[in-house]
């Protein structure tokens, strides 16, 4: 069968109304690097201590569009002094259509940060080296496991909330 109409023009492509996931934009939302003790910190000869803080923010910016921001802050201490603080907030705008809310939540909590993570890793490495420090390679992060933990915490909070509501209802009924 031909894709042409009787006048020889190509037939319009059929509309796909099924689920769709798209990356609309990836960008740096915030970037910071500080070396509060420079230049003295470069003469310190102690084993550095690293503290990594990871966070994620999700914001709906349209009917089918979400901004996801993956934030990583790395603080390096040399003894009691801060050697450096590197902060990267990598963001993306993602389109999600034709999906159940639970599926959207899962994609926003796992796939979106997985897409943003390589950008964060590269920026973090470049910042630290440009700051005069040895290379730092951010190790892979299992966002599926982090999301599963988030779901577990949500369920525990909901269960605790139901228990508190049941106790309040029981107390109110006893006072009636």
Main features:
disordered N terminus; alpha+beta; Bacterial Protein-export protein SecB; elongated; disordered C terminus; four-stranded antiparallel beta sheet; 3 helices; 176 residues
Produce the secondary structure layout.
Blueprint lengths: L19 E15 L13 E13 L4 E14 L2 E17 L3 H9 L1 H20 L12 H33 L1
Antiparallel strand pairs: 1-4, 2-3, 3-4
Explained architecture:
The chain is α+β, with helices and mostly antiparallel strands and 176 residues long. It has a domain at 20-134: Bacterial Protein-export protein SecB (Roll), CATH 3.10.420. It has three helices and four strands; from the N terminus they run E-E-E-E-H-H-H. The chain has helices spanning 101-109, 111-130, 143-175; strands at 20-34, 48-60, 65-78, 81-97. The chain has a four-stranded antiparallel sheet, covered by helices on one side. The longest helix is centred in the C-terminal third of the chain and has 33 residues, at 143-175. It is elongated and about 60 Å long. The relative contact order is 0.15. Residues 1-6 and 166-176 have low confidence and may be disordered.
């Amino acid at each position: 069968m031909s894709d042409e109409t009787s006048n020889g023009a190509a037939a319009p492509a059929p509309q796909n109304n099924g689920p769709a996931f798209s990356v609309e934009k990836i960008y740096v939302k915030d970037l910071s690097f500080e070396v509060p003790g420079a230049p003295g910190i470069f003469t310190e000869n102690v084993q550095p201590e690293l503290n990594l803080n990871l966070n994620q923010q999700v914001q709906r910016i349209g009917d089918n569009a979400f901004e996801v921001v993956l934030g990583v802050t790395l603080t390096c201490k040399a003894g009691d002094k801060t050697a450096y603080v590197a902060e990267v907030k990598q963001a993306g705008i993602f389109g999600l259509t034709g999906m159940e809310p639970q599926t959207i939540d899962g994609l926003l909590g796992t796939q979106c940060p997985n897409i943003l993570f390589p950008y964060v890793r590269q920026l973090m490495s470049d910042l630290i080296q440009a700051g005069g420090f040895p290379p730092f390679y951010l190790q892979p992060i299992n966002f599926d496991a982090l999301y599963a933990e988030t779901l577990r915490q949500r369920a525990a909070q909901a269960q605790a909330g139901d228990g508190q509501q049941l106790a309040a209802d029981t107390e109110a009924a006893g006072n009636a």
